[in-house]
Every structure is written in structure tokens, then in C-alpha cells.
Fold these 3 entries.
Entry 1:
Amino acid sequence: ALMPKLEATPPRPGVLSIQGYSAGGYRVGGTVQPGGVIVTPERMEAWPVTDLASARVEDFQLVTTEQPPIEVLLLGTGPAMRRPPAALLEGLKAAGLAVDFMDSRAAARTYNVLVAENRRGAAALLPLD
């Protein structure tokens, strides 16, 4: 399936942007990652979480341990916006993150805007299928 290209300001060299997405996965820094993905300006990993109801703060380790610290975590809730469990949001806040949740397409676009503005943002995106 063809991935729609995301229109975004080209990021600074060495900063990962989300270049596209489809039901099959996400294109980040030229690499297609099937399923969910977690992205910081420097790193990208497969994100095995498929349901936020069972997600734990430990599932966000890439983001909570990044240096310099991540300021904003964009939580992509899949094809539609869903409210993550309160306990998860509280745990992420306790880990020092400001969390904003939205559908995964909006989270991918917003992440690109943040990193283009040199902000320390990260995105954890559930799959779109």
C-alpha cells in the first residue's frame, strides 16, 4: 500500500521525522516500521503495544530515559482518538512527561511540527489497522 507523504518542514539533519503512514505501519527516517512505533528525535523502535488499556509506563522506556529529557509525549491512539486509562496518564506525568493524546495520524503530524520547532517531542503511535 502506498503511504501518504506527510507534508512537514524538513527536520534538522540527524532528527527523525515521520514521513508517512498506512494501515501497515509508519515510515520514519526512510525506514518502514510495521505496526506501532515509538519515536524520539534521535531514535525509533518498534512499539509492541496494541491496546492502551494494558499499556504500562515501562512500555515507554525509550521516551522516559532519553537525554536530554523529552518534554512532550504525543500518544497516538490508533485510527480514532480514545482516552488512555487515567492510571497510565498519571504514571507518564509522574515520569516527567506532558502527554497529549489524539488519533495516530494527528499525533504523527504534530510530532513533525514539534521537532521542526526544535522541541523535545516524542510520539508513541498505535497501529492504524
Note: The chain has a mean pLDDT of 91.
Entry 2:
Amino acid sequence: MLKKIDHLGIAVTSIEEARPYYENVLGLKLDRIEEVPSQKVKTAFFDIGGVWLELLEPTSPESPIAKYLEKNPSGGLHHLAFLSDDVRNELASAGEKGIKLIDQTPRGGAGGMSIGFLHPKATLGVLTEFCSPAKD
């Protein structure tokens, strides 16, 4: 079951260059910066009212974020993530309803979360992520 919007993923060419906007203009406080080698990204998280803004900087030209930035050089909103009780069930349910999946099964994401994506061609152009705390 979906619980809330967990985060908005925002592609940036450089977290260090983007930070002043989020900190000095919007007045948000950086919570953490983390590298996710499996996703080939560095992330930075800002909390705003219980919803995270996740800045995504590519660490490799093969990163999905690098590919996004090739098409969108200014960066921008990359994905919308929903917190769920169980990513595996969300993916299975979406697949059963005919939604094209990027991930057939959950994988690891930032903050130790279990994540899975739906293809934007099947979700009205919005790359959609389900996430939940990884289960032991």
C-alpha cells in the first residue's frame, strides 16, 4: 500500500553547484550526501515537510542520470517516488495491471531503501519509483 510521496528526484550536473540554491535561496538544510555505486550516482537529500528532495549527480557517463542530462542539459525533475509497505508487491500489482516495469524485482537504493521503477511510457510520462525500507 502506498503511504505518501517519499521524495522527488532532481537531476543535477553538480550537487556542489546546486546546493546554494536549495540552502541559501530556499533555506533548506542538507541532511546527507551519499554515493550509490550500483546506480552510478551521488545523492544529496533535503527534507521539506516530511518529503525529501533528492539531488542526483551522475558519477559515470553510463549512469541513467547522465543519459537524462544529455537530453535535458539544465537538469530538472527526474522522478516521483512513493513510499510503500512492500516494493515487490507494488511492482507485481502494477505489472498485473499492464504497466511496463523497469524493475521486475526490487533493488537497492540510497539510504538502504528497496526501490523499483515503472517505465514513464506507461505512467503518463512520469518516471515512477516505489521505495520502502529494505527488509532483513
Note: Helices lie at 15-25, 64-71, 87-96.
Entry 3:
Amino acid sequence: MRHRLLVFPLSVLLAAAPVQSAPDGAKIYQRCAACHLTTGKGVPGAFPPLQSDVRALAGMADGRRYLVLAVTRGLAGPITVEGKTYRGMMPAQGGLDDESIAAVLTHVTGTIAGGGKGVKAFTAAEVKAARESGATLDAAAVARLQPKLPAK
């Protein structure tokens, strides 16, 4: 008795697979906007702006790691942003996977910070590596990692 091989068209197999869309960085940013505002301008003295310094950090390897750790581990203690000192606390943003963090950081650096297409997009692999490298850090330790930006 001969066995028949059933062949399904590729389109049928692909249609049956669940489609997952990439996380929407702008939508995820809504949780950040509660403090940093929809414009990313922040609140003077309370919540730092996410603009020129963030754009500059996105162009530096240690700056990109710092941005990921700020989101994943939080920040506590003094940081300097656009020449002003902030002494508050930013809690770690739990519940976001690596792809979601990459999406929101890409949105922040490209859109909110005004970097446009000139800013390299964050990747889930980059987020994972930074997250793993900083797994033992607390929010105060992350704040101390803030890279110095070149003088303007």
C-alpha cells in the first residue's frame, strides 16, 4: 500500500500561524508621559526632559546601556540632565519585555528626543544584553553610571 504525502500550500500554513505585531513604542510611551509629559519636556525640578541629553546618550554605547538600565532597573539619586540636577526616583518599568523596551527607547530617542531617523533603533538583543549586564544593579547604582556628555 502506497502512502500519500499531503502537501499544503504555504499560504495555508502561514495563515494558520498567529501573527504578532511589533510593540508600539508610542503607545508604550504613554506610561512615561505621566511624568515626562507627552512632549518629553519633563517637569522642571521634578522629572527630567527626554530631549537633547537622551538624544546624545543614544549615540554612545555606554549611553545606550544606561538608557536601557534606567528603564529596566530605575534611577535614584542625583543625575544631571541638560545642566540641571534631579534628585528624584524613577521606578523600574516592570512588565515590559525586551522588544517593548527596544520599541519605547527607539520612540523616545527618535521622536520625543528629536533624533529622527538618524538615531540607531534599539533592538531586543541589545536590551537583553544590557539588562543581563546590569541585573545586580539597583536604581542608585544605575544613576551613578550616567555617562558624561561631550561639552557643547
Note: Strands lie at 75-76, 79-81, 84-86, 89-90.
